Amino acid sequence: MALRVRNLWVRYGRLDVLRGLDVEVPPGRVYLLMGPNGAGKTTLLRAVLGWAPVTAGQIEVDGLSPSVAPRDVRSRVGFLPEVVQLYGELTVAQHLRLFARLHGFSGDLGDILRQAGIEEAWLSRRVALLSKGMCQRVALGILLTKEVTTFLLDEPTTGLDPPSAWDWAHRVRRLAHERGWAVLVTTHQLEHWVELADDVGFLADGRIEMEFRPRSEGLERLLTFWRSTGSWAGLSYRSNEGQVTGDG
């Protein structure tokens, strides 16, 4: 198991943000973690990276604990935050060469361009002049120069237009299968990911309320769940099969 979280509790002051959370992401699978604001999604990612204090429970990345060996864990994890911070004055090519050296990458950067969807015409452009979607692809290219087993994405498609968001989701799924990554995605944009994720978990009150496998179980269980709980009322998802809504 590449990523395993068992009975995880994270407390800030008197507030229990995570309350007995269990999540497992095997190699080559994409786990979609949904949840309202304040549910603890980003806190979970920070805990996996060793940036949030663990009150109780266990986190393992390739059998290593971020509480015991945070640097070793982070060396195995690729992390893409919601807001990508790049060097605005550097070109795309300069970014890729810089991080390739830092990560000890000796492969073909042409393969990185293809896998990340970076066009050659962008290479001479300064990052400050790129759109958010372009910057996301550059960030993905940078992560591809690093040997990782686990990939964490925090709201990766927020602010992207629908075609760019779909491209991102498809690209990540393909890379997860090709490279054997364990991918954990947090997002509010269910429509871009649910049909591509292997597993979907719904986080509320610090724990997983429900899990399902959309490609094998279909969306009927999702519809039933949304209609049965007030915490998810108002969310909606549009697919080729029509509109699924939590409003009942």
Can you tell me about this structure?
Strand 10 (236-239) and strand 11 (242-245) form a beta hairpin. Helix content is 33%, strand content 27%. The chain has a domain at 3-86 and 148-217: P-loop containing nucleotide triphosphate hydrolases (Rossmann fold). The protein is an alpha/beta fold. The protein has nine helices and eleven strands. Strands 5-6-7-3-8-9 form a six-stranded mixed beta sheet, sandwiched between helices. A three-stranded antiparallel beta sheet has the order 2-1-4, with helices on one face. It has a two-stranded antiparallel sheet with strand order 10-11.
The CATH class designation of the domain at 3-86 and 148-217 is: Alpha Beta
Distance between the termini: 37 Å
Contiguous low-pLDDT stretches (5 residues minimum) are 244-248
Helix content: 25-40%
The counted number of beta strands is: 11
What fold name stands as the CATH topology of the domain at 3-86 and 148-217?
A: Rossmann fold
CATH architectural label of the domain at 3-86 and 148-217: 3-Layer(aba) Sandwich
Tell me the number of helical segments per DSSP (H or I, 4 or more residues long).
9
SSE string, helix = H, strand = E? EEEHEHEHHHEHEHEEHHEE
| Sheet of most strands | 6 strands, mixed
Look at the structure and name the CATH superfamily of the domain at 3-86 and 148-217: P-loop containing nucleotide triphosphate hydrolases
General form: globular
CA-atom Rg in angstroms: 18 Å
Give the strand order, joined by hyphens, for the main sheet: 5-6-7-3-8-9
